Amino acid sequence: MATPSVLIIGSGIIGAGFAFMAAQRNLPIRLISNLPVNSGGTATANSWAWINANTDNNKSYFDLRYASMEIWQRWMQIVPDLVSTSKGGFVWDINPDALRSFAACHKNWGYPVELLSTDAITKKLPCLRDAPELAAYVPTEMAVEPDDAVRALLTAATIQPEQNHVHSLLIDRDRVYGVMTDDGPYKADEVILASGNGTPALLESIGTEFEMKPTNGLLVTTQKLPKFLPYLLTAPDYHVRQTANGNLLIGGTFHHNQSLENGQNLQDAASALLSIVERALKCPVPLEVESFSLGQRVIPKGGLPKIGRIQRLGRGVISGLYVAVMHSGISNVAAVAEQGILEITTGLPSHLLEPFRPENNLINTND
C-alpha cells in the first residue's frame, strides 16, 4: 500500500500511542488536540494509569492487554523519559472464591499471578494496618504518570499537537477524507479518532450513532510523602498508589459511583476517600488533600474496546476512518496502536483486534 497521511484526533494516551507508532513507520502525521491544553478534561489526565491484564476471565481481552503489557516494556526501552513508577499490583477487591478463580484462570493463560495469604502480604506490605486473608499479586503490573507518558511518546514521534476545535468529519460517499475545524478543513488519507467520549459527536456528523456508557471516576491526590508504597493496591473500597513525585493517588471503586452521579459534594467525597486510605495504611505523616478531580471513564456500550473501521448498517465499510475507543486506554494503548497502525498500513486484519470491532455499537441514523 502507498504510505498514507494520518490525521489523529485526540491528544491523550491513545492519540499519543498512535502518533508514536505512525512515526515508527515514517507516516506523515498531524495531531489535533480537541480540548484546551492542560484543561484536565481528558480521560488520560484523570487516569490512575494502571497497566495490567487483570480481566474478568475474558480470553480475547486478556490476550490484548497482555500483549500490550509486553509492548509497553519495549516502548520503555526505546522511548527516552518513558518509565514506570509503581511496580507490582495487589488485588483483593473481590471475595476469596472469586479471587481464586481469577488467579487459576489467568495463571493457566500465562499471567504471572500469585495468591498470597495474610502473612506473605504483610511481609511485602508492612504499611497495611489490616492485611486481607488473600490477595492476588502480579509483579509485572505497573503504572506510568499519564501526562509524562503522553509527552514522552509525542516527543519521540516529533509531533506537536495542534490546538483546534473539530466540528465534524468530512465524507464523500463512503470515504472520510478529513475533518472540519474552526480554522477550516484538515485533510488526510486516514483519520484516526482517538477522541474518547467525544467520539459519538464526530460519528454523528456522518450519520452514525455510537453508544457510550461512561462512568465517573474520582481521583484524590495527596501532598508529597516520603516514599513508602512501591506497589499498586486495589482493595474493596479504594485503590491507591504512590506517584513518582511522592503523592498518593487515590480512587474509589472502579464501578459506577452512584453517590457522585447523584451530586454528592466532591470535596466531601474526596475527604471521605482520604479517610478510608488513612485508616487502611500506616502513612509516614497524616494525609492532606492537595487536589481532586472527577473524570469520565471512556466506556463503549458493552464495556469492551471498540477498534477499527466503521461499518454503517446496510452501506458497507467507511474507508479513511479508524476508531479507537476504550477503557482502559493506558493498559490497552500499546497493543492497540501497534496493531491499529499495521491494519491501516497493510490492510490486513489483526487477530488481536478482531473481537473488538465497532459494529455492535453502531446505529445508522440516516435510514
Q: Mind sketching the topology for me?
A:
Layout: E1 6-9, H1 13-24, E2 29-33, E3 50-51, H2 59-78, E4 87-91, H3 96-108, E5 114-117, H4 118-124, E6 134-143, H5 146-156, E7 162-163, E8 166-172, E9 175-181, E10 184-187, E11 190-193, H6 199-204, E12 208-210, E13 216-224, E14 232-235, E15 238-242, E16 247-251, H7 258-261, H8 266-280, E17 289-296, E18 306-312, E19 316-325, H9 329-346, E20 362-364
Helix pairs in contact: 1-5, 1-9, 2-9
Give an account of the 3D structure.
29% of the residues lie in helices and 29% in strands. A hairpin with a 2-residue loop joins strand 9 and strand 10 (184-187). It has 367 residues and is of the alpha+beta class. The strands form four sheets. Strands 3, 4, 5, 6, 13, 14, 15, 16 and 17 form a nine-stranded mixed β-sheet that branches. Strands 7-2-1-11-19-18 form a six-stranded mixed β-sheet. The longest helix has 20 residues, at 59-78. The model is unreliable at 36-41 (pLDDT under 50). It contains nine helices and 20 strands.
| Count of DSSP strands | 20
Low-confidence stretches: 36-41
Instruction: Quickly count the helices.
Output: 9
Strand content: 25-35%
Class by alpha and beta content: alpha+beta
Largest sheet: 9 strands, mixed
What is the CA-CA span between the terminal residues?
33 Å
Order of helices and strands: EHEEHEHEHEHEEEEEHEEEEEHHEEEHE
Oligomer class = single chain
